[in-house]
Amino acid sequence: QVQLLESGGGSVQAGGSLRLSCAASGRTVTNYAMGWFRQAPGKEREFVAAISWSGRSIDYADSVKGRFTISRDNAQNTGYLQMNSLNSEDTAVYYCAADRTVRMFVTRLIRNYDYWGQGTQVTVSS
Fold first, then answer.
1. Is the dihedral of CA 21, 25, 29, 33 positive or negative?
2. 53-57 contacts: CB < 8 A, separation 24 or more?
3. Secondary structure (3-state) at 88
4. pLDDT (average), residues 96-117
5. Taking CA 77 as the corner, what is the angle to CA 63 and CA 3, rounded to the nearest 5 degrees?
6. Rounded to the nearest 5°, which phi and psi values hold at 35?
7. Does residue 85 register a pLDDT over 90?
8. Do residues 119 and 8 make contact, with C-beta atoms less than 8 angstroms apart?
């Protein structure tokens, strides 16, 4: 079983930055793709970014492309989401997830992710 724990959320002013971390425990996720999703109040959970186990396949939602950067450190069993130029529309609970299926490319589909963290709140004030 895999446990994922997000950290790094908080409150920031528009234009600011935050770096989220996702630490995996229970077993290694070195061979798993990792993704970040978010859910704003009253909205459905949506895809933000994903990275393959090797880092060769990376995908971003259009809304964050150019502002967010996903990365991972397999030696530390940890994934990251660097978020720059934040705006109020980025306010949400952010979740990390792990996909244990080997795929040619990372997936945006929530149902394809097998393990989920509890989420970390990101609040951006204007």
1. negative
2. 53/29, 57/33, 57/104, 57/105, 57/106
3. helix
4. 96
5. 85
6. -130, 160
7. yes
8. no
Q: What is the pLDDT of residue 55?
A: 92
Strand partners, 73: 78
Structure tokens at 101: 């299926």
Residue 30 pLDDT: 82
Mean pLDDT to the nearest integer, 72-83: 96
- DSSP states along 25-66: ESS--TTSEEEEEEE-TTS--EEEEEE-SSSS-EEE-TTTTT
Using pLDDT thresholds of 50, 70 and 90, give the confidence band for residue 27: confident
Residue indicated by tokens 């060769």: 56
